[in-house]
UniProtKB/TrEMBL annotation:
It comes from Rhodococcus jostii. It is an enzyme of class 1 (oxidoreductase). Belongs to the aldehyde dehydrogenase family. Keywords: Oxidoreductase. Residues 35-488 form the Aldehyde dehydrogenase domain. Pfam families: Aldedh (PF00171). One of its GO terms (molecular function) is oxidoreductase activity. This is NAD-dependent succinate-semialdehyde dehydrogenase.
Amino acid sequence: MTTALLSKLDLDDLVAGLPTKLLIGGRDADSAHRATFGVRNPATGETFIDVADATETDAVSALDAAAAAQQSWSATPARERSVILRRAWELVVGRGEELALLMSLEMGKPLAESRSEVAYGAEFLRWFSEEATRIHGRYTHAPAGNGRILVTKQAVGPVLAITPWNFPLAMGTRKIAPALAAGCTMIVKPAEDTPLTLMVLGRIFVEAGLPGGVLSVLPTSNAAAISGALMADARLRKVTFTGSTAVGKRLIAQSADLVLRTSMELGGNAPFIVFDDADIDDAVQGALAAKMRNGGQACTAANRILVANAVRAEFTTKLTERISALAVGPGYEDGTRLGPLINERQLGAVAALVDDAVIHGATVLTGGHALGGAGYFYAPTVLTDIPSGARLLREEIFGPVAAITGFDTEDQAIASANDTEYGLAAYVYTRDVNRALRVSEALEAGLVGVNRGVVSDAAAPFGGLKQSGLGREGGPEGIEEYIETKYIALANP
């Protein structure tokens, strides 16, 4: 992308072409109350567009459309569903630069990362276009010889997907693609901070030939009202959510009334373990990716960096040099390596965690403060000498703050890594294959990166243990979240 594309004129042209209405039944619709809400650019703090604000009435209308389309969509041949998903993949890839610029504008991430998200997010469309034709049942003799066992797979039914702001495209496609492949209709409620990318994606699906009612997109400033109205309706059969553990727990409790299927991708507190036999330069590069990708605003971000004391000084010096050199600025400007945090609330939360650590004795090696001025920028930060009682060792930082602590033995590293109620991602750096396998199996995490700082892959199952969630997204496992298994007992022929 050239500098010219990043001019104010190009940004204005992009905004002028964006959809601003709800997508219900395959058509644009105003909010039932004609209400709107503003979307802010986190690099300036200013509202740059207003979009329709969905109400409970709109949610019911979307469910009306989803329920009406469910039977015909689930009966649509798998190959036809596959072709539509493949066509959507082609359209997303073809509009990749536009989508990347939009994500950098509404979420703040650097353009290079936005482009990577487009590629990653699009891959779910291609992967599940292929999985749509591979939903298998089985037919076998009953062991007792008294009949036959027929097992079939059927779509769960209408689904509510609630997506987060940190990966506006990929967290949508990771849910939409397997649901559509399985034959489910879906209502998507994108995050209030970043609704635009999924609003564009909804129109891409219309262009790809998705029948009306199969996918609705409802931006809203009142998520609780929308989810409450839908989850109280017996026509809804599943909820899939990515976000905080606190909200996930509330949704799980709500789901109990109608015994809804749930998939929950919740919070994390990822340990990043560097053993004394690791390639230190490689570990530093991995830590930079695991910590600073998306400005640290990822549930898989390295929250606690645990380094063997024998190599801690070398690692800390090298990582601090790399982090302190990161260029901070609006994501859509050339050269930016670290964008703003998503909003003022998140900026305050990160600052409070750092201040708490410093008050209790942590040492700031670089950064440690908000940058001031327009937008929600926090300086890239490295902390060391962190006391065990510091909040940031227990809570998700969700910001560009690397917190380094030491250990002496493998058992200490594992115990520290597992000392959390979360269990999403973990990272291990070592040149010893036996240690890599031993530690990976001992870590209480759904994802483990061995000598890798980025682990997500559309072809692999993503999900956590403990309070990091339920279910898996991606891989062959991902489509099972949207399928019911039915056993049919047949008499002997």
